[in-house]
């Protein structure tokens, strides 16, 4: 039995630490928030202080509380999209590999179409058809984002399967009349854990950016606090022009740091 080997690469360790931090923030963030994100009883536009670590908005809302509460919706959408997109990649990619050969791109037409389509405009079109109440549901938004983020993983899984189908030992089995060629290919064409983890993490990277962008341009419900909603209200109240940097810098930094594990891996 092989012993469990802990990662030694500083990049991997740092990536795991960052990922773990944001998972904990997703779970415990709303409980650690000192105030309700909708509480407007404080003075407006207070600069960061011991009482309000990130200051307050123009309505007197605590920005630190909004940041902690908004982490849950942002990360839930990213994780749902990552899981669903990875599953679609495996199902579609391996199925296409069963159907076609290495030189036959027919089974990959749909994959190539999704690769060619620009992700954000497609998301905007799909989002416009959603019922208004669905735009506040993090699970539905995660599924929608997954529909535009699965194609790269599917192409890799399918190509891996197709390459196996053209190897000499598989061709020999076909010549002698073997019917269950999948038994020969399955062990060799199964996506490796490293590839699946990479696909999952990069989908999270894409999902965080896509969700924050949709919220920032007002295409998701503004009643659900997330980092994109915070940027939306900061922009709507001219915070960048008025010098209220403490309003938009925290969600902006978290939006950039959140996907860091994908880059580090």
Can you tell me about this structure?
The chain is mainly α and 265 residues long. It contains 13 helices and no strands. The chain has helices spanning 10-32, 63-99, 109-116, 119-128, 138-146, 151-165, 168-175, 182-189, 193-216, 227-236, 239-242, 245-257, 260-264. The chain is globular, with a radius of gyration of 23 Å. The two termini are 26 Å apart.
Sequence-ordered SSE layout with sheet pairings:
Blueprint: H1 10-32, H2 63-99, H3 109-116, H4 119-128, H5 138-146, H6 151-165, H7 168-175, H8 182-189, H9 193-216, H10 227-236, H11 239-242, H12 245-257, H13 260-264
Helix pairs in contact: 1-2, 2-5, 2-6, 2-9, 2-10, 3-6, 5-9, 6-8, 9-10, 10-12
Main sheet characteristics: none
SS-based class: mainly alpha
Question: Which descriptor suits the 3D outline?
Answer: globular
- Distinct helical segment count: 13
Helix content percent band: 55-70%
By DSSP, the count of extended strands is 0
Report low-confidence residues grouped into runs of 5 or more. 180-184
Mean pLDDT: 77
H-E order: HHHHHHHHHHHHH
Rg over CA atoms: 23 Å
Distance between the termini: 26 Å
Classify the beta-strand content into a percent band: under 5%
Tag the structure with descriptive keywords.
265 residues; mainly alpha; 13 helices
